[in-house]
Amino acid sequence: MTTLAVVSAGLGEPSSSHLLADRLATAVANRIDVDTKVVHLRDLARDVADNLVTGFPGARLRRVVEDVVGADALIAVTPTFNASYSGLFKSFVDVLEPGSLVGKPVLIGATGGTERHSLVLDHALRPLFAYLRAIVLPTGVYAASSDWGAQAGLVERIDRAGAELADLLAGRAPAAPAAPYGDVVPFEQLLNGGRPTP
User: Which distant-in-sequence residues (6+ apart) come within 8 Å of 40 by Cβ?
Assistant: First the structure.
């Protein structure tokens, strides 16, 4: 069975980062059968810090790293701190061995207070995983506080991102989007007063 690792760096409980990570995992699981392993980094903060100081992971952190590295795909979600990913998120990534994410599909997500921080996906997360030579999916999902109330746009982004990852894991070509302007009146017809040109 396809395995999916879901890493959330949310610090609160409840956490909007955890919620976004769960919704993204559900969007994938609704399309293909996956064995999902969820990691809440807040529960591993001391283990990560100990590893950075000693250079050796404890047993619990080692199991989590093996789950993430051994998974067929990764969903990674972080809260936005100072216009970038959180320190805990980056510290966990630093624990991973160089080359351990090469070729792994990664769906990125982030949460924050306002829409102004949405570029964290493209100026922080995407370059980080590109440096690690992972395959970063085209659609990343950012959720501001206001997105949770409206939900319509957020649900659409989550579904699109989940479909992209599911299609990649299933070996399917992504579905072509419907042409948004399929019923456009030709320019020549508009010049002819709306009547079809002879």
Answer: 8, 10, 15, 18
Alpha helix locations (H) across 55-151?
Answer: 59-70, 87-95, 120, 126-131, 145-150
Distance CA 141, CA 120 (A): 10
The verdict on whether omega for the bond into residue 196 sits within 30 degrees of 0, i.e. cis, is no
Give me the domains of the chain, ranges plus CATH numbers.
Answer: 2-191 (3.40.50.360)
CA distance 138 to 77: 15
**Residue 20 pLDDT exceeds 90:** yes
d(CA 152, CA 169): 26
Token output for 32 = 């293909």
User: Do residues 169 and 32 make contact, with C-beta atoms less than 8 angstroms apart?
Assistant: yes
Does the reported pTM lie above 0.90?
Answer: no
Virtual CA dihedral for 190, 191, 193, 197, nearest 10 degrees?
A: -80
pLDDT at 176: 59
- What is the pLDDT averaged over residues 164-185? 76
CA atoms of 25 and 120, how far apart (whole Å): 20
> For the segment 84-111, what is each residue's pLDDT rounded down to a tens digit?
999 999 999 999 998 999 999 999 999 9
Phi, psi of 67 (to 5 degrees): -65, -45
Report residue 69 as tokens: 């590295």
